[in-house]
Specification:
Blueprint (H helix, E strand, L loop, with lengths): L1 H7 L14 H7 L6 H14 L1 H17 L4 H11 L5 H21 L4 H11 L5 H11 L4 H23 L4 H10 L1 H11 L12 H10 L10
């Protein structure tokens, strides 16, 4: 459990602070009418319908696949995730964080390197973050429901941190948003741990459009 706290901590060097996942363009477009409410609504919609749900479910699939010694699933779902990234920036974010996590896992525990190497052989050079996180959960034997809560909290904290810089928000206001979204985090986690592969879905056209327009912004603080 303590290892889960370590890998979801903002100080864990994965580079997540470099990304806003389209939030930077969204805030620029709504600058005149922006408020805490519109920012929180964006986060609520992403938790309810967004690609974070797909990533979390794939992470759980990887945990089950490794437990069943079905290593071919790693390659399949890593390739599948490529198709869920509508823009180059979102794909690069996921792969950069995934590769960084796999490397760090090997650096932290040399006893796990043979298993991590076997995973890498199946995946190839580009590993999505959800895949790498699932590998960590499986190899370190972390309880899946707790892993989902940690994964969602890590995602939410990163975007709130971006919002604090971009809107800007005070630190207390940012923490208030995280606190108010706690019930939705818990509800989402309970739903995702029981869903089947056939229930995979997301509606992310808003995120996709924001990410597509990110590269055209006059100034940018983030990579996505």
């Amino acid at each position: 459990m303590s290892f889960l706290f370590q890998i979801i901590n903002s100080s864990f060097p994965l580079g997540s602070y470099n990304y806003s996942e389209g939030l930077e363009f969204f805030i620029e477009c709504t600058r005149q009418d922006h408020s805490l409410t519109t920012f929180q609504e964006w986060l609520q919609r992403e938790l309810t319908y967004g690609s974070i749900r797909l990533d979390t479910q794939v992470m759980l699939i990887i945990v089950r696949a490794i437990a069943a010694d079905d290593w071919t699933q790693l390659r399949y779902w890593n390739t599948w995730l490529n198709g869920t990234r509508e823009t180059k920036e979102l794909r690069q974010q996921s792969i950069q964080m995934g590769n960084s996590l796999l490397k760090l896992l090997g650096d932290l525990d040399e006893n796990k390197r043979p298993q991590l190497g076997a995973c890498r052989e199946q995946i190839g050079k580009s590993c999505h973050y959800a895949i790498a996180f699932g590998i960590a959960i499986a190899l370190w034997d972390i309880e899946p429901h707790q892993a989902v809560l940690g994964y969602l909290h890590s995602w939410l904290n990163n975007l709130v941190s971006a919002g604090v810089k971009l809107i800007p928000l005070g630190q207390t206001q940012g923490q208030r948003i995280i606190y108010q979204l706690q019930p939705l985090i818990i509800e989402t986690a309970e739903t995702l741990v029981t869903q089947k592969e056939m229930d995979l879905y997301a509606c992310t056209w808003g995120l996709s459009l924001a990410s597509m327009n990110h590269e055209t912004q006059y100034t940018r603080l983030f990579r996505s």
